[in-house]
Amino acid sequence: MAGVEYAHRLGNGYLTENVEFIQTSPLLYRRDKVDFLASHHTDNHGATKVYYIGFPYGGDSRVLNFSVSYNIPEVFKTKLNIELLEKGKMNVLHPHNDAGNNNEYANLLDNKTPSGNIINQYLTLTLSAEYFVPKFVDFIDVSIETNLAYVAARKYNKTTKEYTEQKDDIQFALALKITF
Known about the structure:
Blueprint: E1 2-10, E2 13-23, E3 37-41, E4 48-52, E5 61-72, E6 76-87, E7 118-133, E8 141-157, E9 162-179
Antiparallel strand pairs: 1-2, 2-5, 3-4, 5-6, 6-7, 7-8, 8-9
């Protein structure tokens, strides 16, 4: 993991730039007999979500993240975030042992990140903003938030050097936040 963040005053606010690179081993959070995974039961049709305890993308990940934000305290803030993510074959469902179970020692030979022949690649661009409505009552804070996100995904085959299953989507959200 390596990253740099720089903030400086600009006009009435602060401009912050951040770049971060993270690469995790395919066996991060995967241990003999006990994996660092947790599950959470949801009310959504009895579904259970399994996730990593720690880094949100878990092991076998390579992430490059860049962001720039501008903040005028109690008035306005905005942020642009660009994230590139590569995930190998190791995930919460993939056994870390070639015998197909997690009760033996981790012995996968393909332990370079990203592992496997098929690499999942993601690009996320997010532009967000928040405007703080001037106070009209001392104990109530009101703000308007907006978020525009673009997500693209594809699979890369190391052997054929081809990209497949390319897809993308755009999401827009608008919210009114009231805090007492």
